[in-house]
Design a protein that fits this description.
Blueprint (H helix, E strand, L loop, with lengths): L2 H9 L11 H29 L25 H15 L5 H25 L9 H21 L5 E4 L9 E6 L4 E6 L1 E4 L3 E3 L7 E3 L11 H27 L5 H20 L2 H7 L10 H19 L8 H18 L6 H4 L1 H24 L11 H7 L4 H21 L5
Antiparallel strand pairs: 1-4, 2-3, 5-6
Helix pairs in contact: 2-3, 2-9, 3-4, 3-9, 3-10, 4-5, 4-10, 5-6, 6-10, 6-12, 7-9, 7-10, 7-14
Amino acid sequence: MLIPLFKYLETLDVPGAQMFNYIMFRSAMAVITALLFSTIIGKKVIHTLQRQQIGEDIRDLGLEGQMQKKGTPTMGGIIILASILLPTVLFAKLDNIYILLMIITTVWLGMIGFTDDYIKVFLKDKKGLAGKFKILGQISLGVIVASTLYLSDEVSIREKMYDAKGTAKTEMGLNYETGKSETRQMTKEIKSTKTTLPFIKNHEFDYKWLLWFLGKGADTWVWLLYAIISIFIITAVSNGANLTDGLDGLATGASAISGATLGVFAYIGGNIIYSGYLNIMYIPNSGELTVFMSAFIGACIGFLWYNSYPAQVFMGDTGSLALGGILAVFAIIIRKEILIPLLCGIFLIENLSVVIQVVWFKYTKRKYGEGRRVFLMAPLHHHYQKMGFPEPKIVTRFWIVGIILAVVTIATLKMR
């Protein structure tokens, strides 16, 4: 929204107006604005929720300090969503297809989560929004994302060119950092369903290779496969973040760590010089997503001011479903979705702990007549609570694990 204004100011030779041409400057403004906005409105939103008696109804699970959280304001995810959207609208290019997709994702999943919280809080139905409607909403978003990325003419990747002998084609070009001409490999923009695959040469994998048995029909049916994979990733990561939101600050901090890593990938992958140097996929116009992710990080950190132990507000499904979904869609857009199990390992293990617990309980109940458990309680963070670990220690250690996973994920750029 502010970009046209500063472009006009630039024509008037207003000092500093040209700074808005730089992604890093706008990203810095986005993170600062999100951080300040979330901390400022956070207090007001919490007071409003308290006045409306919108508090968390805690089910007694026998966990230490659990019942002390009863009545803590919930639906605080509104703070996060507003703090993401405002800086994005102010500082990002709103005609960018990737930014539009991220805005749609934020609003879409935020509305699903808000509906779930509304039913729980105002209609006093502890079950909330029926699971089938949540899944339907996530599937719909997956279809929208996959269709846009597959069909839009504004979505492409830049691929290196080779001659008939397999030799790389080169050309003389200007290095904008040094100001000197240099020889570089020729590239061309193409529509593709390629993504990034770590630990192999060139880091690329095309989904249509999975449909090799269809021959030429692979080009026709690859969209369906791409949509199914997108739906699975969005649903899994969104629900994983939702399950992780069980301790003060856990989901918020883990999301910020993963978001920062994806922001690095977006900036490098959207810069022709850096992507060429690191030999990773260059995605034209995707660098603009750095502005969105900066707002995301600022919003998470700002919300953590009130959500850290002991929490003054919970994000509810309004926030947790959106946080996971945003990370998933962002990763799909910058073609790093295969790195999600590593980068979002906290969400993955929380998901798996629930699946393992349920499957093993049902299996042993059928076999022995009595259900048995692998963990003291699921998701995994509750298992450690049952073991007697203090809540802040569990959260901090999960964050440390998240940071380690983020570092390893970034390191995959040079592991081949």
